[in-house]
Amino acid sequence: MERNLDFDKIIDRRGTNCIKYDGAIASGLPADILPLWVADMDFRTSSYIQDAIKAQAEHGIWGYSDAGEGYFLAIEKWMQEQFGWQVRPEWLVKAPGIVFALAMAVKAFTKHGDTVLIQQPVYHPFRHVIVDNERIVADNSLIIEEDGTYRMDVDDFERQIVANNIKLFFLCNPHNPVGRVWSEAELIAIGDICYKHGVIVVSDEIHADFVFEGEHKIFANLKEEYRQMTITCTAPSKTFNTAGLQISNIFIENEELRGKFEKAIKSCGYGEPTSGGVAACEAAYKDGRQWYEAMKEYVKDNITFVEAYLKEQLPQVKMKRPEGTYLVWLDLRELGLSNEERRELIVKKAQLWLNEGEIFGEQGSGFERINVACPRAILHEALDRLRDAIMAWK
């Protein structure tokens, strides 16, 4: 029976080497700042995952490990039930994380000086793995409507591909940080352009299990031709709060692309996954559904709580309810602050550690990303701090 269903329980994470809390001083921030930035949860994971790790601890040997048949069967069942996606074992490449996989795709499918396409504002490591590998970033910026909804600029998307001879595109779906769950029509619009111009798509679908409006569509599963041009990046880490266990599952149906990707991984010296990551992933997908469903409902209620709080007490701070992810994109542009003033307001006055919008690209200027996967009391305190700081700033 699942034991870890009390999401209101506040668990002290300080002193556990977690960067969310213990990384404040190293980042030049006060040790007691309230952190709602990095995308991990303040919830204990499923007790089935805990039990799997405990069993390993009792065994007492952590030698070189790899996943057995049960590992794939658990993933296969989850993907079929969640998304109607039938995966095959030969498509699977295990990696320590999705950012690592993005970097490997850059190495595998481009050369120095090539240009890779992204859609900002977007998860900032997208840019980092391109630039750090001496490639060039092209940006098909998302368009924000008056109501806060973001959409793709499809015409510019094709212009960018042609003008920059793009051969690799990073898709973020659901989108971090703006919370869009791209519709089938939106995905096909850009997918057909990529197919037309021979562009490989790396689809980051790590937030796929957090969809509150609409339906998540596995990009590779939309059309037969997409299956042969897509690297689909999945992981249990966001869904089950296991990022520290370093496991992700990358699916590549095209044998040639998979071979190049695996060669890039081998060139970095990475071999077997961690035994803890393997055990946690199998337990999560096999037995973690009750925990997942309860946690997702709690996060959904947290989003509703933030939405209501802002309308009632902070109407000058806007939010567009996210269709997916547990990350809320706060619009503070109405305050009329510079980026430096906004940082002072958030960090020094409110004593909050959020993600500054501009790290996701200049299009994020005036925004803050807040992680709402935490006990509601923590979220309430954070919003009270923000309200009081804004009132005092006036």
Molecular structure report:
This protein is an alpha/beta fold and 394 residues long. It folds into two domains: 131 residues, Alpha-Beta Complex (Aspartate Aminotransferase, domain 1), CATH 3.90.1150; 238 residues, Aspartate Aminotransferase, domain 2 (3-Layer(aba) Sandwich). Helices cover 41% and strands 13% of the residues. The strands form four sheets. Strands 2-10-9-8-7-3-4 form a seven-stranded mixed β-sheet, sandwiched between helices. Strands 11-12-15-14 form a four-stranded antiparallel β-sheet, covered by helices on one side. A hairpin with a 7-residue loop joins strand 11 and strand 12. Helix 12 runs parallel beside helix 14. It is globular. The chain starts with 18 loop residues before the first helix and ends with a helix.
What's the quick description here?
With 394 residues, the chain is α/β, with parallel strands linked by helices.
- CATH architecture name of the largest domain: 3-Layer(aba) Sandwich
Strand content: 5-15%
How would you characterize the largest beta sheet? 7 strands, mixed
Overall CATH class of the largest domain: Alpha Beta
The stretches of 5 or more residues where confidence is low (pLDDT under 50) are none
Main-sheet strand order equals 2-10-9-8-7-3-4
Number of strands: 15
CATH fold group of the largest domain? Aspartate Aminotransferase, domain 2
* Residues in helix, %: 40-55%
State mean pLDDT (0 to 100 scale).
Answer: 97
Count of runs of 4 or more consecutive helical residues: 14
Could you spell the SSE succession in H and E letters?
HEHHEHEHEEEHEHEHEHEHHHEEHEEEH
Q: In whole angstroms, how far apart are the ends?
A: 52 Å
- Protein structure class: alpha/beta
- Overall outline: globular
CATH superfamily of the largest domain: Type I PLP-dependent aspartate aminotransferase-like (Major domain)
Radius of gyration using CA atoms only:
21 Å
Count of folded domains: 2
